[in-house]
Design a protein that fits this description.
- This protein has nine helices and 13 strands.
- It is of the alpha+beta class.
- The chain folds into three domains: about 110 residues, Helix Hairpins; about 70 residues, Urease metallochaperone UreE, N-terminal domain (HSP40/DNAj peptide-binding domain, Sandwich), CATH 2.60.260.20; about 90 residues, Urease metallochaperone UreE, N-terminal domain (HSP40/DNAj peptide-binding domain), CATH 2.60.260.
- Strand 4 and strand 5 form a beta hairpin.
- The longest helix is centred in the N-terminal third of the chain and has 18 residues.
- The N and C termini lie far apart (about 75 Å).
Length: about 325
């Protein structure tokens, strides 16, 4: 479905009354009806757009949803079948002497409608709403068409990457929710498919699928490199020269003592093996890499300056 501005399609203001909306639709339906514009694809498209716009704006609840969520959000919540359900378009078209639904299906699906002239003869455009239909082919039921797939972004924490998770997501369709399992080790940019949770088919086919685009949120002190976790630890200049021991946390909440060898250079990395992220739900774990930063003091007291001066004289 296209993202239409239904108010612009009907040429009415956003605060238009129900009578104004109905009047505008009647005018457009009469102007662009296929029987009056045979072979005119532009008129055919405008006629379909007017039908869709009226079906939404003439229904108080659908109009409220459209005004709340906008065109794009509304299309995610309503299929074509939903849009045309309980619409009174048929009664308005009968006022023009147009019958429908006798051959090939009724008006309720919103996607396959049969129009014929008041005298019972077949209109050249009686299949204009069927997908791929062509004038003059006759009215044949369509093959089931799969509903539209939907995509949503799903944010997860690095802790959930480590352990895997189960998340419940609201689909915004009458409170509908779906629960999905997040496999351990998953990366940003990966997609999870939930079969049958997309839009419903407009003509009774299989529903579309829901795709969840994974986004791993930043962690306060770990960065991810593949399945390794990188953490930066700052040590003093003297500790870098003489060696020291530092505490290194893990995502599991544990602390490990890691020895820093004497003479370590800035940006060197120490490895804590097997405490990173899993390679898939059942694979081995990566490592924690401890990146060493050497703190250079910006100010020194007299005693410190004297000692460093002596070190400098000694060749350090």
């Amino acid at each position: 479905m296209k993202n239409l501005d239904y108010y612009k399609v009907l040429g009415v203001a956003k605060d238009a009354s129900a009578d104004e909306i109905k009047k505008a639709y009647r005018k457009l339906a009469l102007k662009f009806h296929p029987d009056r514009n045979q072979g005119n694809k532009e008129s055919e498209e405008k006629f379909k757009e007017a039908n869709e716009a009226y079906a939404v704006l003439s229904d108080p609840e659908k109009r409220k949803q459209y005004d709340t969520f906008g065109s794009s959000g509304f299309q995610q919540r309503y299929s074509q079948e939903d849009i045309f359900r309980n619409s009174d378009i048929g009664s308005i078209l009968r006022e023009f002497g147009i019958n429908f639904g006798g051959r090939g299906g009724g008006f309720s699906s919103g996607n396959f409608r049969t129009f014929s002239s008041g005298g019972g003869g077949r209109s050249p455009f009686e299949e204009i709403f069927s997908q791929g239909g062509h004038p003059g082919q006759g009215c044949r039921p369509q093959q089931p068409v799969k509903g539209q797939d939907l995509s949503l972004e799903l944010s997860i924490s690095l802790d959930e990457v480590l352990h895997g998770a189960e998340k419940t997501i609201s689909l915004g369709r009458g409170g509908e929710r779906v629960t999905v399992k997040i496999p351990a080790g998953i990366e940003s940019g990966k997609k999870l498919r939930v079969a049958g949770k997309g839009s419903s088919s407009p003509i009774g086919g299989q529903a579309g699928d829901l795709y969840l685009l994974i986004k791993v949120e930043p962690h306060p002190f770990f960065e991810r490199e593949g399945n390794n976790l990188v953490i930066e630890k700052a040590i003093s200049f003297s500790s870098a020269v003489l060696g020291t021991e530092i505490d290194v946390p893990t995502l599991n909440g544990k602390q490990f003592k890691v020895k820093v060898p004497a003479g370590i250079q800035p940006q060197s990395k120490l490895r804590l093996k097997g405490h990173g992220l899993p390679v898939g739900p059942h694979g081995p774990h990566g490592d924690i890499l401890v990146k060493i930063a050497v703190e250079i003091p910006k100010k020194l007291n007299k005693a410190q300056k004297k000692l460093l001066g002596e070190l400098a004289e000694a060749g350090l």
